[in-house]
Amino acid sequence: MTKVLKIILFLCFFCVSACSLASEQELRELYSTGESLAKPSEISGFVELKKAYQAPQLKLYYLNGQKVDLSQYRNKLLVLEAWATWCGICLQEMPNLIQLQNEFKGSDIEFVGINIDTKTSAIKPFLDKIRMGNFITWSDPTQSLGEIMPLAVVPSTYVFDGKGNLIGLLRGYVPWHSPSVMDYLKQLASKYAKQ
Questions:
Q1: What is the pTM of this model?
Q2: Where in the sequence is the domain holding 67, given as residue range(s)?
Q3: Which CATH number does the domain housing residue 170 bear?
Q4: What is the pLDDT along the chain (195 residues), one digit of tens a residue?
Q5: What span, in angstroms and rounded, lies between the C-alpha atoms of 152 and 186?
Q6: What are phi and psi of 81, to 5 degrees?
Q7: What are the distances in angstroms from CA 32 to CA 20, 29, 166, 175, 185?
Q8: What is the C-alpha separation between 178 and 41, in angstroms, rounded?
Q9: Measured torsion, CA atoms of residues 85, 86, 89, 92, in degrees rounded to the nearest 10
Q10: CB neighbours (10 Å) of residue 37?
């Protein structure tokens, strides 16, 4: 009986410790984002957050292994698209994302793919093999994006304001080529890029 009681006490202690650790890692609210923009039906699952949140330190890397400095993207709407080599829908989205990367180049909207595979050395050869070598992507081998929203679904989209704060997210496929989605992105940039 005392052995069972010790196990129960240990489990209770473990659960309380885990809960307090999780609360320490919660995203910190920074400001109210105001009225949400009217979004097109194609991305009805997109959530424009009511409050901007300071994101945790993301462990993102260029494909050459150098750490990404997100402060380089100040005054831009930064759209990060989590994908994986094993995700068929992600691969279907890629040509549209490349088109957006080219179309918005030099603007206040920046699109970057974030590969969540743990073997980063295989990303570039994979992209070359499927003829998508010009897709701008970084790696997140520790899946640090999962600290914002679980990465159980890819593709997943994370949108950051001009100061690097999380302002929106979406799980699943996005028809990026849709004119109404493109217009919505421009509205988001007008609202958030120069925060």
A1: 0.84
A2: 27-192
A3: 3.40.30.10
A4: 555 433 343 333 333 323 322 333 467 888 999 999 999 999 999 999 999 999 888 999 999 999 999 999 999 999 999 999 999 999 999 999 999 999 999 999 999 999 999 999 999 999 999 999 999 999 999 999 988 877 889 999 999 999 999 999 999 999 998 999 999 999 999 999 987
A5: 28
A6: -115, 105
A7: 26, 8, 12, 28, 19
A8: 11
A9: 40
A10: 15
Compute the C-alpha angle 59/71/52, nearest 5°.
Answer: 85
Contact 185, 77 (CB under 8 A): yes
Domain assignment present for residue 10? The answer is no
Decide if 55 contacts 27 (C-beta within 8 A).
yes
